[in-house]
Amino acid sequence: MEHELLNIAAKNFTVAQPISASSIILNYESEKKKSFQFRQFFIKVVSVATPLLLLGVWEILSNLKIIDVRFFPAPSAIFSKLWDLFQSGEIWDHLWASIGRTVYGYIWGVVPGVIIGIVMGISPIVRAAIQPLVDATFPIPKIAIFPLFLIIFGIGDGSKIAIIAVAVFYIVLINTVSGVANIPSIYIDVGQNYRASRWLFFRDIALPGALPFIFAGLKLAMGIALIVLVSAEFVGARSGLGYLVWSSWSVLLVEDMYAGLLIIAVLGLLSTYALNYIERVVIPWKR
């Protein structure tokens, strides 16, 4: 009888195998990794689906005449017009003109902004000399002084490049100074204790320490550069995306105007992705 009971118990119950702590940790890490990957995938899906959903709603409202198609044409009509502009080659002249002005103005603003910003962050004397000028002139709307740039540089590309460079310079400068100011004091103490030269302090401590703030300024400055570019091309250009937008609106070619705005939005998106990629490469420790 006792033997039979033991056989029944062996058939109905399994002996639990001992579980090691390492296997529990590995399972936990695996589940955590899967959860993180699913969350990242879901975030990407939402970031793509949201604009598509808005375009779909816009298309439906336009087709049902719920919104005034004279001012808000259907997205399908805008994309069709954009395709025609690419096919005719008209958009390319405007696109390359705007890209060239933006790139040159951006570089002319970023390079001095980073260098002067780091020097201001390192040297209290330089900061005391320049900071009041920055505080006084930064709030001035840059597009408000564009007529002055037209007088100085003429109506060609020089005035647009100069006004973009000035707008970018302030954003990058202020972020760079903040980046140097927020470097952990232990790094500065190490540099001082080892009597690092000014060049070594600049290259090995100030610049790497300020890079996260510098890249934040670079991304913000790119958006500012596009805003200033379009505003400058409104009033003083015969080519460029800003000119396309303004001239199209002047003759009520609303679909052309939206096509120009769409290209500007795509430029802003691509520049942000490019800067994010460069940031991951240059400062991998920020991931």
SSE topology sketch:
Blueprint (H helix, E strand, L loop, with lengths): L1 H11 L8 H43 L11 H14 L1 H33 L1 H14 L8 H8 L3 H25 L3 H9 L4 H38 L5 H10 L3 H29 L5
Provide a concise account of the structure shown:
This protein has 287 residues and is mostly helical. The chain has helices at 2-12, 21-63, 75-88, 90-122, 124-137, 146-153, 157-181, 185-193, 198-235, 241-250, 254-282.
Characteristics of this structure?
287 residues, mainly alpha, 82% helix, flat
Strand and helix order: HHHHHHHHHHH
Average pLDDT, all residues: 85
Structural class category = mainly alpha
Radius of gyration: 29 Å
Globular, elongated, flat, extended or rod-shaped: what is the shape? flat
DSSP helix fraction = over 70%
Instruction: Summarize the main sheet.
Output: none
In whole angstroms, the N-to-C terminal distance is 67 Å
Transmembrane segments: 41-61, 103-126, 133-155, 161-188, 209-237, 257-278
InterPro entries: MetI-like, MetI-like_sf
Keywords: Cell membrane, Membrane, Plasmid, Transmembrane, Transmembrane helix, Transport
Membrane topology: Multi-pass membrane protein
Note down, in words, how this protein is organized.
The chain has eleven helices and no strands. It has 287 residues and is mainly α. Helix 3 (75-88) packs across helix 11, helix 6 crosses helix 7 and helix 10 (241-250) runs antiparallel to helix 11. The longest helix has 43 residues, at 21-63. The termini are far apart.
